[in-house]
UniProtKB/TrEMBL annotation, chain A:
<dbReference type="InterPro" id="IPR027417">
    <property type="entry name" value="P-loop_NTPase"/>
</dbReference>
<dbReference type="Pfam" id="PF08423">
    <property type="entry name" value="Rad51"/>
</dbReference>
<dbReference type="InterPro" id="IPR058766">
    <property type="entry name" value="HHH_XRCC3_RAD51B"/>
</dbReference>
<dbReference type="InterPro" id="IPR013632">
    <property type="entry name" value="Rad51_C"/>
</dbReference>
<dbReference type="InterPro" id="IPR030548">
    <property type="entry name" value="RAD51B"/>
</dbReference>
<dbReference type="GO" id="GO:0003690">
    <property type="term" value="F:double-stranded DNA binding"/>
</dbReference>
<keyword id="KW-0233">DNA recombination</keyword>
<dbReference type="GO" id="GO:0000724">
    <property type="term" value="P:double-strand break repair via homologous recombination"/>
</dbReference>
<dbReference type="GO" id="GO:0005524">
    <property type="term" value="F:ATP binding"/>
</dbReference>
TrEMBL record, chain B:
<dbReference type="GO" id="GO:0005657">
    <property type="term" value="C:replication fork"/>
</dbReference>
<dbReference type="GO" id="GO:0140664">
    <property type="term" value="F:ATP-dependent DNA damage sensor activity"/>
</dbReference>
<dbReference type="InterPro" id="IPR013632">
    <property type="entry name" value="Rad51_C"/>
</dbReference>
<keyword id="KW-0227">DNA damage</keyword>
<keyword id="KW-0539">Nucleus</keyword>
<keyword id="KW-0234">DNA repair</keyword>
<keyword id="KW-0233">DNA recombination</keyword>
<dbReference type="GO" id="GO:0033065">
    <property type="term" value="C:Rad51C-XRCC3 complex"/>
</dbReference>
<comment type="function">
    <text>Involved in the homologous recombination repair (HRR) pathway of double-stranded DNA breaks arising during DNA replication or induced by DNA-damaging agents.</text>
</comment>
Length: 413, 346
């Protein structure tokens, strides 16, 4: 909508011509200027400008829906009112049926805790026939860290759904629906993401997994040439792939960021994944599929911002407490990214026990479920979540973590 | 007042000035045909200019005793008007108390906090609470929810709406045992029906919608709250020209403020947080920069204080800076668990 041509939105001919003469071609151009700037630029009176801006706005502005019609529409058109059941009863109940369509769901946790296992299980679930509670569709699995194991996938499938996987040819059919792709660079990822957008609908893709998002930034973005690559890919791919309704990615974002990194070792003005964040979000939204991304953890640095300025006084007193925790972990992608995900599930280990926490969700209370990784994938030890309060909701523990990994490593063999 | 400040086109202004008409008083005694002759423009155009000029000069002139400035109000009148305007409850008593009774209609309130703090929850709660009927101390109005992030969950709205109706029925049972007239006839679907949901996908659409809201609200007079969740998202993703961003944002803020004043409705802007380097350490602060922080009348920051969620009034012309605990429950925003007992006794 934003890139609608001014000449095609039914403005009076006389004023539309003036816009054209001043090279204000799209609605975006016009609305990026204030009324006074427009008056100056177009050399017309106040009344004409306001009526023209009002007209453009009315055309460009998205249509409204009542929340009721939104809900009815989802119940009617979508399997399970737009949820992918995870097969974990407690979690499904907390999330009103499973991983919701149309939004980003993030898995955060230390290495080896079971993020990839969970992704594998979800991929299987999405590919299963709907008679078995699946979505009966294709899955695109973007495997950045090269951790996807098809052997493990089949194992989980055979153990969790023996009735399907023991049928002749079914294992081949099910795993044939999962398309694994390993991007070699951030620019390749960017390019392919735009192609994926087109193919999502044609190929009945019902789930997109990105494992992991953090590796994309830490592994690939070594500045310099990479930004030139991104620039060229975006400018090449842009006119073809982008429909009018999408925000144009700002090429300058990347250069701006690279520039600011070169100039000063401060925090970048804009997030390196800024464009990807909004693109992936819109991808989920418009194709109405669940998108699951994983995120790594890193240890919290001592000067990490976690307080507002009015809290500083108290912060100095509580600083001691922070030190006490010792190995304090935070999600690798910062606060900007955390705002963008709709649901954040934290996988952690605490005193030798793994927990799955619903750390951010608009529909669920902050619950923690103890879980275990078995041959059939992840399973909850209890379907009644423990309700969390305070900083526990966001904290990521990894105590006794290595013990569990060794233990399960043996049990898998 | 000078001709340069009149809202007319640049070329007309140029003609006026080059013909020697620099002040408004020089235009006041002219007839349209004289002006048309002088400037070599059509009579109609001249008449337009004079009309605009007379409007402009009226702003300058004192008009009787009361209105020294046209369109202004005395502080006393404003006080009365303020009292007339109801407030939208947040469903959390402590939070209402520090806000002076709830979110103020006619004002722009900005609410910010870290991810998962409950911003969207508060937004949805307000969209539901604005519909509490007048009999129950609410506004009985409708809500506009502008979603820029895609985080609006209908399932959650349904939960909160159901809980809200439950609470009202309960309150009905407690207070009105004796008379039957106040029977509650509300269904969660009614509440959902009265939330107008706009999904905004780019900053251009956000600007367009802000412009269009005035018309929309004129058609739907009973809208009393506009929630923007979040005002930040698109302006944080694809922007390179920071000066342009500031300009557009302040344009949006001005229009929303005008909207709030003219239609007597509450505008609630949800904002994200960012880190900022202040006095030798990194601290959290609301996003969009310093000039944006001037645009809102009230600013509320949500933060963790130990094990409890707190709201802090960071900026307000009328409220003292204070903080209050709240909690997010399955029913929506409610009193924090530790203060619950105290309230029951009251």
């Amino acid at each position: 909508m934003a890139n609608k041509l001014i000449s095609e939105i039914g403005l009076p001919k006389s004023i539309a011509n003036i816009f054209a003469a001043r090279n204000i071609v799209t609605a975006k151009d016009a609305l990026s200027l204030t009324e006074f700037q427009l008056m100056e630029l177009l050399d017309v009176g106040w009344a004409e400008v306001t009526s023209a801006v009002a007209h453009i706005s009315a055309i460009v502005c998205p249509p409204y829906q009542s929340a009721l019609s939104l809900m009815e529409q989802r119940v009617k058109n979508e399997h399970l009112a737009g949820h992918l059941p995870t097969g974990l009863k407690g979690l499904d109940e907390a999330l009103c049926g499973g991983i919701p369509f149309g939004v980003l769901t993030e898995l955060v946790g230390p290495a080896g805790i079971g993020k990839t296992q969970f992704c594998l299980k979800l991929s299987l679930l999405a590919s299963l026939p709907s008679s078995y509670g699946g979505l009966d569709g294709h899955v695109i699995y973007i495997d950045v860290e090269s951790k996807f194991s098809s052997r493990r996938l089949i194992e989980i499938g055979a153990k969790s759904f023996p009735e399907i996987f023991l049928m002749k040819g079914m294992a081949k059919k099910m795993s044939g629906r999962i398309l694994v792709w390993r991007p070699a660079s951030l620019s390749e990822f960017t390019e392919r993401l735009q192609q994926i957008k087109v193919s999502l609908h044609q190929n009945e893709v019902k789930l997109l997994v990105i494992d992991s998002m953090a590796a994309l930034v830490s592994g690939f973005s070594r500045f310099g040439s990479i930004f030139k690559e991104i620039k060229s890919t975006i400018s090449l791919a842009l006119p073809i792939v982008f429909p009018k309704s999408l925000p144009l990615p700002s090429i300058a974002n990347f250069t701006d960021w690279a520039h600011s990194r070169e100039c000063e070792q401060g925090i970048p003005r804009q997030h390196p994944l800024g464009w990807h964040v909004s693109f992936i979000k819109s991808l989920a939204e418009f194709s109405r599929i669940p998108i699951v991304v994983t995120n790594q953890v890193r240890s919290q640095s001592s000067d990490e911002a976690c307080q507002f300025s009015f809290q500083v006084q108290r912060w100095k007193e509580t600083k001691e407490d922070h030190a006490r925790y010792g190995s304090h972990l935070v999600a690798a992608l910062g606060v900007h990214w955390a705002h963008a995900v709709t649901i954040r599930l934290v996988l952690e280990a605490k005193s030798g026990q793994r927990f799955l926490k619903v750390s951010k969700s608009p529909i669920s209370a902050p619950l923690a479920f103890p879980f275990d990784i078995t041959a059939s994938g992840m399973s909850l030890l209890s379907d009644d979540g423990i309700e969390l309060t305070g900083p526990d909701i966001n904290a990521i523990h990894s105590q006794g973590h290595s013990d569990i990994i060794n233990f399960t490593g043996e049990s898998l063999q | 007042m000078e001709v340069g400040r009149l809202p007319i086109s640049a070329s007309q202004r140029g003609k006026l000035i080059s013909a020697g008409y620099t002040t408004l008083s020089s235009l006041s005694s002219l007839s349209p045909s004289d002006l048309a002759l002088d400037l070599r423009i059509s009579d109609n155009e001249a008449a337009e200019i004079l009309k605009v000029a007379s409007l402009g000069s009226r702003l300058d002139e004192p008009e009787g005793g009361r209105a020294i400035v046209n369109g202004a109000q005395t502080a006393w009148d404003m006080l009365h008007e303020d009292e007339m305007f109801p407030r939208i409850t947040t469903s959390c008593l402590d939070l209402d108390n520090i806000l002076g009774g709830g979110i103020n209609c006619k004002e722009v309130t900005e609410i910010g906090g870290v991810p998962g703090m409950g911003k969207t929850q508060l937004g949805i709660q307000l969209a539901v609470n604005v519909q509490i009927p007048v009999d129950y101390g609410g506004l009985g109005a409708k809500a506009i929810y502008i979603d820029t992030e895609g985080s609006f969950m209908v399932e959650r709205v349904l939960q909160i709406a159901e809980a809200c109706i439950e609470d009202m029925t309960e309150c009905n049972g407690l207070l009105r045992k004796d008379f039957q007239a106040g029977q509650l006839k509300m269904h969660p679907n009614n509440i959902l029906e009265n939330i107008f949901y706009f999904r905004v996908c780019s900053y251009t659409e956000q600007i367009a919608l802000t412009n269009y809201l005035d018309k929309f609200i004129s058609e739907h007079k009973d809208v009393k709250v506009v929630i923007v969740d979040s005002v930040t998202f698109h302006f944080r993703q694809d922007f390179d020209d920071m000066a342009l961003r500031t300009r557009l944002l302040s344009g949006i803020a001005l229009k929303l403020m005008k909207l709030a004043k003219e239609h007597g409705l509450a505008v609630v802007l949800l904002n994200q947080v960012t880190t900022k380097y202040i006095e030798g350490s990194f601290q959290l602060t609301l996003a969009l920069g310093d000039s944006w922080s001037h645009s809102c009348t009230n600013r509320v920051i949500l933060y963790w204080n130990g094990n409890e969620r707190y709201a802090y009034i960071d900026k307000s012309p009328s409220l003292r800076s204070a903080s209050a605990p709240y909690s997010v429950t399955s029913k929506g925003i409610r009193n924090s668990a530790s203060t619950c007992k105290r309230i029951r006794m009251m």
